[in-house]
Amino acid sequence: MIRLFAALEVPPDVGRELQHRQHGIPDARWRPLEALHITLRFFGGVSENLARDLDEELNGLGGGPLEVVLSGAGSFGEGGDVRAVWAGVEENEGLRLLASRCEAAARRVGLKPETRRYKPHVTLAYLKRPDPARVAAWIADHNLLHSPPFRVTWFGLYSSRLSPEGSHYELEREYPLN
Predict the structure, then answer these.
(1) Closest CA to 8 of 125, 152, 104, 171
(2) Burial of 4 (0-12, 13-18, 19+ CB in 10 A)
(3) Cα angle at 142 between 28 and 41, to 5 degrees?
């Protein structure tokens, strides 16, 4: 089984700016530069045969290049159950369309539909039982985050390998947005 997801890479210059915000929450597992991305669809563990089918479906989704802007900050979970903090993504119809095309590709190869509403973001840290006041202060301190627009001309299929230090991501395929 291979854990796979489709995502947009965060350009290194934008990622370095995000890394300046990775402090202020004790015991947070801050994500390294190479792990910063905007997930389009998490596919989960799939067989190699299904991965090949998924690759074929994702190839040629196209839709044209995108301009993406990061904006705001937030978290997933509430109170002591907060599990991640993130940088938000400004509303972007092209991005939503690409995510829905990835969802359709997943369904065509037989994967179960995603039940959660799509919330584009860049995960900056994973948390385990954080102090809710520290998380709230971090969000307040970074809620005015606003990146310059960046152009996206491709998306990738990534594999994810879990380890005690966190997930490691590997770009498996690139798909042009033309």
Answers:
(1) 152
(2) buried
(3) 65
Q: What is the spatial distance between Cα 31 and Cα 146, in angstroms, rounded to a whole number?
A: 19
Q: What does pTM read for this prediction?
A: 0.94
Phi and psi torsions of 147, nearest 5°: -90, 160
| Rounded Cα gap, residues 57 and 110, in angstroms | 11
Burial zone of 91 (CB within 10 Å; 0-12 exposed, 13-18 middle, 19+ buried): exposed
Cβ burial, residue 71 (10 Å; 0-12/13-18/19+): middle
Angstrom distance (rounded) from CA 39 to CA 7:
4
> How far apart are alpha carbons 3 and 176 in whole angstroms?
22
CB 124 within 8 A of CB 24: no
pLDDT tens figures, 85-103: 999 999 999 999 999 999 9
Residues 7/152, Cβ–Cβ less than 8 Å: no
Mean pLDDT to the nearest integer, 139-165: 94
Single-letter amino acid code for the residue at 108: R
Tally of CB atoms within 10 A around 161: 10
CATH superfamily of 2-176: Cyclic phosphodiesterase (3.90.1140.10)
